[in-house]
Design a protein that fits this description.
alpha+beta, Endonuclease, Chain A, Arc Repressor Mutant, subunit A, 42% helix, disordered N terminus, disordered C terminus, WH-like_DNA-bd_sf, Tscrpt_reg_LuxR_C, Regulatory protein, TrmB-like, DNA binding
Length: 381
Amino acid sequence: MCAKRESGFGGAVLRSRSGPRIVALRKTAKPGVGWAMAGRGVEEHPHGADRLCRAGDRVYSRAVRRGRVPRRDAEPVPCLLELALLHPDPDDMDWLVPTSPQEVMTRLLRGMYDEVSASQRRVGSAVEAVEWYAGLGRQVPPAASGTEGPAIRVLDGLARIQAAMDEATQACTTEVLTVQPGGIRREAELSEGLHRALALRGRGVRMRDLYTHVARHGQGLLTYLELMGHAVEARTLDEVIDRLILFDRTVAFIPANTDRTMALELRHPAIVEYLVTVFERLWRLAIPLTAPLPDTGIEGISHREQSIAALLAEGHQDAVIAERLGISVRTCRAHIARLSETLGAASRTQLGVRIAQAGLDGPPSSGTAVRVPGQGSPSVR
C-alpha cells in the first residue's frame, strides 16, 4: 500500500488509498498521554505513530479492516505493539486486535493540547524573566565620569575600527608598539596609517614595529621608515603573532576575525599588560632592520630556508609554512626545492631525514659543527 503524508497543525495526517487513517503528533510531553504512541521502540523503529514504517502501515491497516491479525504478522513490526496500536486479543493470545483510530486520535489530540499548554506556560515564564532582567538593567548606575569605557569593545566594520584607532592616536602621548604580520607590506596599507604615524611623530611619540624577515624586501616599508626617521624603530623575526597595536600601554587593538573586518579594543589592564610582555619578549628576539640577517653557517642554505626546514620538521604543510613566514606558497615550494637539492634529498621523506641529519630541525646553536649530506667538509653555524 502506498502511503502519503500531509502536514497538519502540530502533527500529520496519514492518507492511504482507502482515505484518511490517523492523525498524530510527532511527540507528546507527558507519560500516559500518548507517550506510548510516540516515545517507545525508537531503537528498532525510529518513528512515532505519526510516521509509521511501510510494514507497520500495512499490518495496522489490515488489522483495522479485519478486526484482528495473527501475532506472527506483527513480528516484523514490533513498533505496533510498542506504540500501542496493537494489543493481544484477550480471547485468543495468538491474535492481535487494533486500537481504534478514534481512540488513537483522542489520545493524540489530548497530548497536543497538553503540549501547547506547556509551551504557553514556558513562554509566559520567559516573558516574566525578560521583564525582570530588563528592570534590573534600568537600575544599573551610569559609569563614573573619567573612565575609559568598557574593558573589551567589539569594533564591527572598517569605519568603526579606523575611528577608534584615530581616537587612540589622538590620546597617545608616549609610545606605540605594533606587530605587523603578512610579509611585504603593501603600499596601500602603509599609506592608510601614514597620517596617524605623522601625527604621532609630531608629538614626539616613540614607535616600535615588529615585522617578518620577508618585509625587509618591500620598498614601501623602507620608504615609510625613511620618511618617519628616528621616530620609528623596526625589527624582524622569522614569524610573528597576528596584528597587534598598543597605545601608551593602556589600550590595544587585535583582529576579531580572519579577514580583519572586525577588531577588539582592549582596555583591561591585565590583558594589555600581558600583550605588552609578549611584545617585549618578541622584540628582544628580533633583529634590527638595519642589521643583516645572521648567516646559517651552512653553505647553500639561506636563513629563510633554515626557517622553512625547521617548520617542515614540525610536520607543517606548505601553505601553513608560507602563511607563517609571510611568503607565497609558490615561493615556499621554490625554497623547499632548493633545500632538497642542497641536502641531496630525492623525496619529501628523505628531505625530512636530511634536515634532521643537518641539525636544521630545531633552533640553531652557535658553534656546532654541521655536515651537510653529500658534502665533504663540515660547516660551522
